[in-house]
Amino acid sequence: MMLFRRQYRRRIRLEWVIVLLALAPQIAGTQEESMSRPDQRTAEAIALMEDFARRTGLDSDRPPVRYLWTDAFAVCNFLGLARTTGEEHYTELALQLVDQVHHTLGRHRPDDPRSGWLSGLPERAGAAHPTRGGLRIGKGLPERGADEPIDTQQEWDRDGQYFHYLTKWMHALDQVSRATGEPRFNAWARELAQTAHTAFTYQPATEPTPQMVWKMSIDLTRPLVPSMGQHDPLDGYITALQLRATAAGLPQPVNGPDLEEATRRFAAMTESGTWASPDPLGIGGLLADAWRVAQLQQQSGVADEQLLERLLSAARAGLEHYARSGELQAPAGYRLAFRELGLAIGLHAAERLQQAVAESRIPANPEARAALAVVLRYVPMGAEIESFWRDPAHQRADSWSEHRNINAVMLATSLAPDGFLVLEAN
Asked: Do 116 and 195 lie in a common domain?
């Protein structure tokens, strides 16, 4: 009966979304009615997220299909849709997804001889601290064995733990705390941050600055890819600032690690880092981080203008290179939607940052303002990316269907980005 009610409720919502998409331009009504009805972009995001929930076993009886990066954006999307529409059902989906991720990716794979929580804690304690052992990526193939040589192509399809996926999940958990006021999600995020800092960073004997590895084994005992991700220390630093700021602003005391040492070590690693990248997903991440830093600066004064300037300058350099690459002129089959949509999301962040700077809500030095002005010239590029991947003909390409879940969720984020981008004040 519960399944029938869920399917009926979902069918009604989908029918409502379809009607809105078809009739929204023609429907007129009072201002109050317009405010209660989602616009076309939001309605399209709802349809994408409803379909994702059904397809991946979140809001259906299908077996769960969990992937950490995609699910982190999905949690944020559901929170944003709840805030936009006023429907608590979307908050329920976000909470349900958090629980499903922890009980799937916080535990060993079904095909692994090991079992239980990755932390090694007993069942009850593991459920109380589901992120203490980290979280699996959710790749289809088992991780590479300790005695197996690395295959650089196959490694992309093998399980393990990625630091930059863990930081996205920290952000998602923190957004849940900010949206609901419940401190346990922030506490889980800080436990995950502490675990990741301990496992992924190390101090070389011949280097004054700590270093990081890019990919670790499922149990966090050995590196699978020893090189350092270009933006991993930056992700760690800004995310640690965010988690600490949230914990300080929650109305009730929050237990868990204070992340003071992790913040200091990540900050040291960012001092000499080069962040400019030709990768659209990386550029979008820099712009989203710039907006995150600006919000943290406004809310709690924990970040400085120099960091904002460095982020915007790196994003500007990456955009100038990417615009010359001609990649957006390639056919759909040769493009990766989720990487391009990451850039579109970042450009939405730049628009929000510009508005905040123009209204003097966020201080920015002349160099940061100049870099932001150049970045804003590329906003039409984000609209072009969105338009391309909203086209049903382009969604029939193998490059879309082979990565359907991540592509659909990232498109939904670009259409309704505030759940991911906006740090709701405590």
From this structure: yes
